[in-house]
Design a protein that fits this description.
There is one protein chain. The protein is built from five helices and eight strands. By secondary structure, it is of the alpha/beta class. Strands 1-2-3-4-5-6-7-8 form an eight-stranded parallel beta barrel.
């Protein structure tokens, strides 16, 4: 029997310590049904759980789908990022090989990056629309574009069949 999980959001916020207090405004700005991938790996476990709990409360109130990246399960998560678990499973992907491996591992959706230059990974080579399109062509799983994304860039990629897009900075404005 397939795992039951929430619908796969089209819009995503990737949490990042660089957001600082802008995180709270970003969470309020996300449309209902959007996704949030909680990262904050650098925090000690107690602080990480406390921050997750605070975000989970907002996610419940606003109807957001909150996923957890990292190994430690968190109360209120609706799924995981980068590993199998209960609920929705998204996977970070940077190459066709990683995409195939993620699908075989049971990914419900792939976050493919970096599509465009991004402040969170300065100087990292980007896929660009053409290589992005070649990477995702024929994959039978929802594709979420990540890396320098905003609504305008998402429209540019729509013809490539993306399911949605994820960002950090686009939500912090």
């Amino acid at each position: 029997m397939p795992t039951r999980h929430p619908p796969i959001p089209r819009l995503w916020l990737m949490t990042d310590p660089r957001l600082g207090d802008a995180l709270w405004d970003a969470l309020e700005r996300l449309p209902r049904g959007s996704g949030v991938i909680f990262r904050h790996y650098q925090l000690p476990p107690f602080e990480r759980r406390a921050l997750f709990a605070r975000i989970a409360k907002i996610a419940r109130r606003r109807g957001l789908i909150l996923l957890r990246a990292g190994a430690e399960p968190m109360r209120g998560e609706r799924g995981t990022h980068g590993r199998r678990g209960r609920g929705l499973a998204t996977w970070p992907v940077h190459s066709r090989r990683e995409a195939v491996a993620a699908i075989r591992a049971g990914a419900d959706a792939l976050l493919v990056s970096p599509v465009f230059p991004t402040r969170s990974h300065p100087g990292t080579p980007v896929l660009g629309p053409v290589r992005f399109g070649l990477l995702v062509r024929g994959l039978n799983v929802p594709i979420i574009a990540l890396g320098g994304m905003d609504p305008h860039k998402a429209r540019r990629l729509k013809a490539l069949g993306i399911h949605g897009w994820a960002a950090i900075d686009a939500w912090a404005r």
